[in-house]
Structure formats: C-alpha cells, structure tokens
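Hello,

Our lab assistant flagged a job as stuck in the queue for most of the afternoon. It eventually completed. Since we weren't sure the result was trustworthy after the delay, we are filing this so someone can double-check. Below is the sequence as submitted and the structure that was eventually returned. Let us know if re-running is recommended.
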Amino acid sequence: MTTVFRIIRLFALAIWVGGLVFFGFVAAIAFKALPSAHDAGLVVRGSLISLHHIGMVAGLIYMVFTLALLATQRDTHPIRAAELVLVIAMLVMTGYSEFSIIPRMEADRMSVGGDITTAPVDSAVREHFEQLHKVSVRVEAAVLFEGLLLLGMASIHGRDDFDRFA
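-- returned structure --
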C-alpha cells in the first residue's frame, strides 16, 4: 500500500508541475501567435485559472497521501514534514493568485472596457495591472520552483535510502 500511496502522490505532483512548465510555453506562444495582446491575455487567463484548479486538486491529493504515508508508520522519514510545508505553501500561493491577483487584474481590465491594452500606458489602472502581472509571474515561478524541489524530495523513501548519500 505504501508504494501505491507514493505513486499516487507523485502522479499528482508531476501533473501540477508539468502543467506549470507547459503554461509558460502556452503564455509565450499565445502572445506571439495571436493577433492581439488582448486575445493572448484571455487565453493565458483561462489557462491559468484551469491550471490553478488542477494545482489545488493535485496539491490536496499530494497532501492527503503524504499524511496517509505518515499515518501508516511505514514511511515516516523526516523529509515528509518538509514536503507538507512545501505543498501547503504551493497551495497558499496558488490560492492567492486565483482568489486575489486574478480578480484584481480582471477588475482593472473591466474598468477600461475589457481590453487593458486600450488604457494609456501611464494610466493608474494600467500601471496597477502591470504590477499585479509582475506579482503573478513571481508567484507562479515560486510555485514551480517549490514543485521541482518537492519532486526531488518525494523520491526519498526511507532513512536508509537517504543516509546512503550522506
């Protein structure tokens, strides 16, 4: 059963981290290939919202199965506590992006008629939108970095396995 729990949580995390990596490519291609920044922004926004939903489900799955591993007393490596801290941080940042950053960016976009690119570059709304965009990029990068770190940590199974490299 321990192996099944490890596999399930690794699949969930791989889907989330893989989605984060793929999202970076989708965003870059959308802004190059679509006819307007507005159209690209709509694609990126929709993709990011979907990615957040995937991430929240995957993070909860990871957390539940990590707790299950701890509860079985068959995998109580101290690194599991660090994993829980990381996945909770990833979930909190994803929630912050989904429920705070995106709605405020959307409010800025709607306040100028739905297309932020029509607002003057030096307008307060456009500057606020750009600040939020920078925060969003940093938050997603931090979630990706933590996810990659967590992928590495998830491969550590038992004390003997870890101590072999000490």
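-- support follow-up --
The delay was a queue issue, not a problem with the job. The result is valid. Helices lie at 2-33, 37-72, 79-111, 124-154, 159-163. The two ends are 28 Å apart (CA to CA).
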